[in-house]
Amino acid sequence: AGEVTGGIGSVTNKLGQVKFSGAGAIELDGSLFANTLVIANAGVDAKAAGVINSNVDYTADGTVEADEGIAGSVTTSANNQGTLKIGGGTVTGTVGTLANALKLVDFVAGNSVLTSGVFATDFKVEAGANVTANGLLTGKVGYAGAGTLVVNKGITGNIDFANQDGILNIGTSGVVTGNITGPSGTINFAGVPVTGTVGTNLNPVSLVSFNGTGAFEIPAQWFSQTFNVGNSGADITDVNALNGNVSYSAAGKFTANGAMTGNVDFNNKAGTFSLGAGKILTGGITSTGAVNG
Fold it and tell me: What confidence tens digit (pLDDT) does each residue in 25-44 have?
């Protein structure tokens, strides 16, 4: 345990290795410059207030918190070993591997960017975290607060909003190959979205918004309090029974080819709503603000 009040190494004079072998809390107030930071004790709890300019290697199940990012890669010697807390900044390298994933990547707060793929058994999104993942996230995602996660490549794993008002933004190239569970939570799709289920009848998510262009068929029965058409070029088709409201923030299209229980609100947008032949809409159709749709 202890505290280093100044920086360690420099841009021109890096250390070869910094190794934490003893248990306890360690605070690094400045930036760290080394080839490798080794976490060699399960009791290590290291918090870096400056940038970690080094690769990080877990040889034991310790914890590192990076509040200004990591200029390097993160590896672990065993699968499901090591906790990485990210409180801000950019992580420039890969984190974990498919064979040796970290136990937990915890987005505790702040604005952070992941430039490469990240492998972890679990990801946690906490309140105040605003994360942009430009590489594929491999592992389960759980929300512990109203944070925001932007995934531009996608997520291989399930997502649980766990009754938190978190936000999941899925980019144009992002695909989620897993199921998403509520209650609560907002999902914004810019492109091809989720291959699994969204919400359940008892625990729907709060909002699913289709903000991209092009045709998309909802692949399974999804449960959301509201489905929003958020782009004039969106053409959404649901072939399953739909439980939830449909709203429009743009003049796109929504087709319900199964029975629907919920209301439709065009919100003064020139959108199009179609109901399948012989299907029943249990609800009303309105246009808040003015006649339209």
Answer: 999 999 999 999 999 999 99
